[in-house]
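Hi everyone, sorry if this is the wrong subforum. Our group has a chain we'd like a structural model of before ordering constructs, and none of us has done structure prediction before. Sequence below.
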Amino acid sequence: MLRAARADYAQRVKNQQRGEIAVCGLESVRALAQARPDAVLRFFSVQERAREFGPLCKILAKGRKTYRVVEPAELEKLSGTVHHQGVVAMVTDAPLKRPDEALLRGWAASGARIVVLDRVGDDHNLGSIARSAAFFGFRALILSDRDHAARLSTSAYRVARGALERIAVYADESAAAFLMRCKGIMPSVGADHRGKNELRSFGLPSAAPPGAACAPLALVLGNEETGLEPDTRAACDALVRVEGSGSVESLNVSQAAAVFFYRFAPPRR
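Answer:
Right subforum, don't worry. Here is the predicted structure as C-alpha cells:
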C-alpha cells in the first residue's frame, strides 16, 4: 500500500511538472469531451470504453494528438488512482483567470449567484461543492490563491462528475480581496457558525435587476477546520449560520454548502 501511495504521488508530481491534469471517471470525461474536446491533449481508455469515445478520438486524430487503448494498470499509473472507471484524459493545467470588474457587473446585472471558497483545502470537497453548485444553478466558482487552498486536480474533477465543465471557475488573490471588489456591485453572505443570522429566517435582498430572475449573490464558504478567515468575515455583508439539533457538532463544508445552495438557489426559469 505504501509503495502504491508513493507511486501515485510520483505520478501527480510528474503530471504537474508537465503542466497537465489527469481527468478520469466516466461522467467527468464525458462532460469534458462534450464541452471542451479541443482541451484534451491525450486520451487513454480500456477497450470496452473505446467505442463510446470514438467522436473524441476523431477530433484528437485531426489534431494529431495521442489516443490509445491501454490496460487498467496504465490508467491507474496515469491518473494516480484506481477510480478511473476505464478512461483518462490529459488536459493542460492552465492558470485560472481572475474575474475583472466588467465580469462582476455582468453577473450582478443578470442576478447571478456565485460561490467563493475561502481556503477550502480538500480537493474532494472542492469537487463536491462544484457538483452541488452546478446542480442548483450557481453561475461561477471563485477559488483562492492563498496557500493550502484546494486547486483543480484529478480528485476534484473526478468527484465533481462533470460539474466542473458546467460551472465557470476563476481564481483571485484571496476571498477577502474578491469580496472587497464586489462592494457596491454584488452583496455577499458568509457561511459562518458564529453568524448572528440563522439560515432559515435570513432574508436576501428581493429586488432583482431589470430582466433578472433574482438578486445577485456571492456566497462564501470557509476552510474545513478554521472556517472563514478574519479578513473574509469582515468583508462579508452578512454572516449566516445553520442551526442543527445539537446531537452532532457541525457539518462538513461540502454538506453545509449543499444546504446553503438549496436555500439560495436562483429560481428555475
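For your construct planning: The chain has two domains: 2-92, 101-264. The CA atoms of residues 129 and 255 lie 8 Å apart.
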